[in-house]
Records
---
Amino acid sequence: MPIDVAPPRTEPRIATGVPGLDEILGGGLTRDRIYLVEGTPGSGKTTLALQFLLKGRELGESGLYITLSETEHELRAAAASHGWSLDGIDLFELVSEEGLDPDSEQSVLHPSDVELGETTRGVMRQVEATKPMRVVFDSLSEMRLLAQNPLRHRRQILALKHFFSTRNCTVLLLDDQTAEHGDLQLHSIAHGVISLQRTPQEYGSQRRRLEVIKMRGIKYRGGFHDFELDTGGIRVFERLVAAHHHATFTYETVSTGAPGLDTLIGGGLSRGTNTLISGPSGVGKTTTAVRCALTALERGEKVAYYLFDEGLPTLLARSKALGMDLQPFLDSGHLLIRAIDPAELSPGEFACNVREAVENVGVGLIVIDSLNAYLQAMPGQKFLLLQMHELLTYLNQQGMVTLLILGQHGFIGEVRTDIDLSYLSDSILLFRFFEAAGSVRTAISAVKSRTSEHEKTIREIRLTEDGIEVGQALIDFQGVMSGLPAYEGKIAMLGDQDPSTDG
């Protein structure tokens, strides 16, 4: 006999007040539950807790912050540093000058002078008096010191959990992980556990990430999510999972703006694909990408250009000198250029910026210049490959035309690459310097294309006042891509017909 399965019951949720966190939790925290927020000192626990209470105040929900380690003045100063006021939120300080005075009546508690049971009862009395809907308890490390043994500590936490469960309030317990081997007992007691981590870097700013370790009754996004802690609070960047993002788009081929280049790659750039532009420094990779971007802008599309290496003024001036003026499109808002410092950027933040450009701005073409600098923003090569796989799959599924620039080491002869991304690329354009007739020239070849029948030839490419010019196939040369060609014919080089234009 088949078993009747009841539809899942949806528990009411409340917003955390932390941008990005509610999306990871699938809509926020379940109301009237107790949650553990853990992290070492400086990881952002207090900031997250304040955002939680401030969101409650915004929604008309009363809040209470119980502190055993920080003073009310310190809490208000911390809030003010973010531009926040804590007016309307009850602050219950268990340490005060009055409480430290042995001659005064002890109306507030001091954890080093009062038994654990009295501390717990003091918390309960304050909750009964203020009847908050949101509570922050900061921090459990003081309770752990008072308890002196795990059994007593667990009993007191269970007592608090039972008390709060009958008071219709949602509670965040903060823990700075001072226990020697972690406190897994807290994990078992709490309805959910959120872990905040910070990782110092050898150079640049420290990296911060968040993990939802446990959340009963909630389908959440697991794994690590980067977050930033800056003026204004915490912002979490949800880890990109391409499988969760699909869009309907029309497959078509669009021009690069250079007829010879269109012919070489089989008609142009296909929507829903990415193209890797690879070659040594100064060979024309960025100029080629700018030509493609400008053509898209002239078609009426929006373009996002992520600039890791070059300064924005330099890019604009150099492009204009080659007949590609980007400034009008920048002024109109159709061109978005983001100059990015890889020492300060987390991979999650970058992926979030790209998603916003695609989903909110509506760009049609994206340029990442360059992957070498993006590599420096990653903690390791294996993570770069995983991150790039998700990002490129996402962009392809959104119908984007994506151009990736990858610099190589060396100029003439042997050329090396930091990392192999060829298997992630739908198309590859390979640039090389070569020597001919006493001058250094540039060759280009389409070595891979998954979506079109591209030429197998090697052509000369030249930067001109009108952008880029792609010449005939170098059929009379052997070894062009090695940088050391052997000339076996009389084919004319670009500009040879008019020496005044040779460069």
---
Amino acid sequence: MTFKELNITEPILKAIEEKGYAVPTPIQGEAIPAALAKRDILGCAQTGTGKTASFAIPIIQHLQMNKEAAKCRGIKALILTSTRELALQISECINDYAKYTQVRHGVIFGGVNQRPQVDMLHKGIDILVATPGRLLDLMNQGHIHLDKIQYFVLDEADRMLDMGFIHDIKRILPKLPKEKQTLFFSATMPDTIISLTNSLLKNPVRISITPKSSTVDAIEQMVYFVEKKEKSLLLVSILQKSEDQSVLVFSRTKHNADKIVKILGKAGIGSQAIHGNKSQAARQLALGNFKSGKTRVMVATDIAARGIDINELPLVINYDLPDVPETYVHRIGRTGRAGNTGTALTFCSQEERKLVNDIQKLTGKKLNKASYTI
């Protein structure tokens, strides 16, 4: 199957070909035709499956082809997501896909001066990508009205609930028109998510590409059983042996992420940390450095890592194990993408052994035990 066979218009086809897209991913192959047919969608898919294109391309095409919508001022599509990094990532994709159309878009998020965002809104846009807090702020100030919305996307819904955005979402939903197309995406489907979808979606097309418990076969998964105090020595040893690779290291806490960067610095290994205590400018700079290869090692907390989107990331290291086994699946999904192989290494201390058992039970896969000498 090709993108042309999905009935995508020429201007968008030209743009995605320039991005190097050859064939649709499984979720794109299912979601794009359904979205073009104006169906509501309930998509269960992990990170790295091509979700953004599966909702952004149909929305751009609908707006491009609807001459009446083009004449109408007001925001016509709202894409709600969890973090600044993810909002920026989606906005960049829309910018690329809409390159040869007249569709206008903008992005808003907290942590930065709102004036440029307000100026952008007053000039008029068709698609708005937003985080819940800043959206509500600007709605309350009268800068944003949602009465013209025709397309609504809720992306990474489970992560939004984890971050405590459920009350914000419930304040936003009543402001949307009843008649609209809703595209709902979540990596996992806990009961709270299912309850939310029941109230939001009308006879949706259900798409499940990667079950929440599965991990990609292209990822080699290994575990080091190591004393807590020896984790830093093991990390330095591994990074010194893989000096040409980009590596994403996961830490459970912001404090520990900063501590790891200091330890690596003393060992002569350059790295940067990305977490919620960093300023927006610092986070964007760190992400840019990592994507460009200027920084080889990125140390991240789970929420901050949502903005990291790199197809060729060969190695992910779980310095600390996550409390929730599904988060492990999210983490290692950063490698082994787009047909590439990848490696996920996990450091497990004595007190974390139960967490490894929980992960193996969820995924149905045994982590290979790795030996080491320091």
---
Amino acid sequence: MNPSTISRRRFAATLTTGAAALALRTRAADPTGPIASIEKVTLRRGRDGSGPTWFHPRACIVPGRNGARDTALMTLQTIAGSDYFGPVNAMTSPDLGRTWTEPQPVPALGRVPLAGGVEEGVCDVVPEWHERTRTVLALGHTVNYRGPKFSSDQPPRWPVYAVWREGKWGPRRKLAWTDPRGAQIYSNGCGQRVVLPNGDLLISLAYGATKEQPRSVTSVICAFDGETLTIKRSGSEITHDKGRGLLEPSLTAWRHRFYLTLRAEDDRGYVCTSEDGLAWSPKQMWAWDDGEPLTLSTTQQHWLTHSDALWLVYTRKDASNVNVIRWRAPLWMAQVDPRTLRLLRASERVVLPLVGEGIKDPNRVAIMGNFHPLNVTPDESWVTVGEWQPKNGIHGDLLLARIRWTTPNRLIATR
């Protein structure tokens, strides 16, 4: 469920699983967890310079019909510098990620020329299957380029999306939000979202009225009819006065609650919860079960859900990576105690390892700060990421971590 596409039956299982759910609300989580193994898979090579460096890889599962196999659909784009991305592409896999088609451009999510030599691109796209309309909604946000670099003078930015239906992409559309608090920017870039039982979407937005104002976060409930995404209601405001405020929020639903994780710029990350997805608890910094805060460096975190446990995937400071840019390698995961909202230190696992020497030769360590978890089958989940080396030729591989579970993930319907 990352992002979460939940039928009525699965949503009920997610939020209420009887006595087991009630027990997990009142006792600490099991630090051993249900992980059997984690396998690193290289989907496309770029670290050796043999191909482009693919970035922002995020996938969803398109269920097969009438006994046909499921298809994995992944959006991705190249990277050629800091926040400088090529047009959005997509590729598919008929065999759960073992083979993939060649990436092909998504016409609606390419570059659009603007006045003054500026081009409007799209980045941070997250595709998600929408069962009620049998479509994939690929939601990202606008970014503006002047020549071969990110434009420092960004005009207002907002979410844009395209819909995939039976192998064909629809037009580019804007998610309109008339709230003046988002006059300069409102964005769900890289964010996980939840599909509610009635087909509505619960989405988080980071927003600001001016360039100087620290960004706040809220959640919105959106209607989606298979073509148009429309905001219906907004939730409470979550604020933070350090740096640029709160960035790249990610949502999930697990058992009785909705969970929201927040990137920040004060060497911390934050978490909130909600019973209805709109009224959020005060933010709490991410910390270990002994109370020690995690040391993070302005990098996103995301959720991985299993019926037996809730996990957070993240990067953090560690003795092995002290000189790596923003400590963005390795990728870790740890189990969340739903009672305290702290991470169980004993449960922490490396999802994708740091490759290279993070102290003496950090410029040759490929960083992995833009990643995406996804539940694939009851027995397997993925984390996808595009590596890159900002100070070593921008090279990096496209990676997939296969997380295999010891017990079936009952959040995934067996087809």
